[in-house]
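Purpose: get a first structural picture of the assembly so the mutagenesis plan has something to point at.
Setup: two entries, given in the order below. No constraints added.
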Amino acid sequence: MTTLAKKVQEVFDEPACGKNQGKSEKERKKGCTKQLTPGAAAGGCAFDGAKIALQPITDVAHLVHGPIACEGNSWDNRGAKSSGSRLYRTGFTTDVNELDVVYGGEKRLYKSIREVIEKYDPPAVFVYQTCVTALIGDDVEAVCKAAGAKFGKPVIPINAPGFVGNKNLGNKLAGEALLDYVIGTLEPEYTTPYDINIIGEYNLSGELWQVKPLFDKLGIRILSCISGDAKYQEVAWSHRARATMMVCSKAMINITRKLEERYGIPYFEGSFYGISDMSESLRQTSKLLVQRGAPAELLERTEALIKEEEAKAWQQLEPYKARLAGKKVLLITGGVKSWSVVSALQEVGMEIVGTSVKKSTVEDKERIKELMGQDAHMLDDMTPREMYKMLKEARAEIMLSGGRSQFVALKAKMPWLDINQERHHAYAGYDGMVALVREIDRALYNPIWEQVRKPAPWET
Amino acid sequence: MANVVTSKKACTVNPLKMSQPIGAVLAFLGLDQCMPALHGSQGCTAFGLVLFVRHFRENIPLQTTAMNEATTILGGMDNIEQAILNIWNRAKPRIICIASTGLTETKGDDVDGYIKLIRQKHPELADLAIVYVSTPDYKDAFQDGWSRAVTQLVQELVEPGSVIPRQVNVLAGSHLTPGDIEEVRDTVEAFGLDPIILPDLSGSLDGHIPEEFMPTTMGGTTLADIRRMGASQFTIAIGEHMRPAAQALEDKADVMFKVLDRITGLEASDRFIALLAELSGNPVPNKYRRQRGQLMDAMLDGHFFFGGKKIAIGAEPDLLWSIGNLLAEMGCEIGVAVTTTHSPLLEKMPAAEVLIGDLEDMEQRARGCDLLITHSHGRQMAERLEIPFLRMGLPLFDRLGAGHRLSVGYRGTRDLIFEIGNLFMANAHEASPATWMPPQQECHDCAPATTH
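Result (structure tokens, whole complex):
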């Protein structure tokens, strides 16, 4: 078995994943990637997933080894924000040509790494493998090793070519690369009993900055965030944190679990979406830190902060309650976002008429059932036509989803709100919840709906 | 006139170029009730889809054969068969168009052979048109993929026939927006001619709202129209990269053609209008005589602001040609011209050099220019260089109305001159007492500080 195939098997057999543990031995072998249906598939590839997971590391040069499609068609299109370096938004690719495909692309890759280091001097270069260069047998690991030795800089191979699987697998393979080559290679200047990791938070639209002030108020230091607004060195010393919060469902569960196995860092799974989820995340963080030796008074301070912030948020939400109560929402998103957003919307009295659970785990589904009752409308694989019908017939009054399905709602002349990675608003924490509700209100009550739904005067 | 050079770097930085397969896909999106698919891994499709969604702000029907490691090595016959059947059953398109990718080309799948076998196996698909085009990612660029796709459509679908009077073909290049195509249609029709436009993005991606949910494209050139193109009296190809398709049409159905290298600019628009007058035998409608006057007036009012300005352009060859020539005709100097792929137009560009390269090359050369023109990915460069920036080409993901931008014909050229002239005016430097002061350093030969 090739090293990559072994890695994929390893990632599939995730002991900390409840969904995986619920499977039979045979099913587990098949892995967690559903076989895609040609002609009826959607979503990104493993390379896409790896890039999403790691590109938010801001000072690293992200170099894509492959033909122009992989980087040229997709660069600088994600909303992860940086407080410092802009290098992560620079598109680097070997753009392999026909000759490279025939003779091999390793030399071009090596030269490219040299050019990037000479011109941009990043603390590290991440090299992403893609389908074509994997198929012709370019040994990215070997080239990275040679280049790293020659240029005296970490050159990290990210071996997640698109054709090995979907985005989620790519997230995990990216995590493996960090575990194999980055985490544990540097030491922070100092540590405190209040140091935490946040894993699976990408700082989209600046959401990390929405919650960071809350941790700051408690004196909790985000030692490393993987990977939102991260610097290379911060990722490299994440093994010195006292506790880990895992944010985006199971996307990077392997990093979280191995940090616990290798370095004894306990973790919990939480969410920044919704008032009660945010509070619970603060509570859990403090609890773990106190268990690891932080003074117990942290717990009291946490409760005090939660009380204050919740009261403030509810006060801000109050005016919306009457306007949004009973409004019917169709929520099309994946995994953890489903249940955390469900609870958030219910907090202002909205009715969730359906939510997709395509990417959710058994636990996620249980959570949704708890929240929405036994007859929750969980849609495993809703077709765009069905969504359109539901909206057109006003069985749902607003759709919340990712960008590519927005036209299902808009062409039915119904309101839509972006809650995926390209969105322009930040919805994390207490402020974020207020912002989400405000945006829903703006979408629902925009005066355009009345005009665009009216037929032309000569058609009546 | 221009020296054409290719960047010698190993590493492309800030790509200007996009890949061939999605160029082919965009051409296919200009066909009515079509479902395009990429024969590759799911990511190839996802990236293209997101790119077009962000540019057009429209639903983009686009599928994938969902190749994985094993199927790639074993060959993609089963995946193509399943993809065609699934698309047929779910979306009921009139036509399925498949473009290959780097992955399946590296393996060397014989897709033409596969489709023959699939046709034999599935007689129920007899009414479904299936077109396949080979577009490896590791060769050429977006507009080449578009060009190949249109040529393939012509070769496979056009049928020779006896001439239908007044019917003319328009082969539209990838540098034309849905708004441009709409303008072309209106103009051709104003002469009493019946145009068949291929591909017709103005039918599918112009932002109309259908009454029903459509899983396929919701407008564009119909299959019947493509078939009838062999019975047209003439073909007008807009853009040099449409020449192969026009030639294929002539070879197949004896339809004579003329390639209009561009239809932006006064003389270029004159050639277009004169050709339509000649083909139709009709006089030029008053509307266009009036618009021609307005364009001349715009040139007269605007030329003060254009003369001597230095421009950096990054665009695919045919767009570079259209815009670069217009600006040169207005008195600008094309200081930097960067493009994505070879074209016979490049050496004729009114510039000292045309570089096949990336936006890093453009950025390094653009210092001191008065205006940057490229697609939205130029935004970082524009910020760093602090030079006014006009977004043109694809993708335009950070502005509304990308599909409706108009830069062809008298009217389109007039408005483009206003838009660019306004950028120059807005960024003109105000004089101050320091403007004409001699430089501080003791250097007698130094040129005095100038403004621009």
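The mean pLDDT of chain A is 89.
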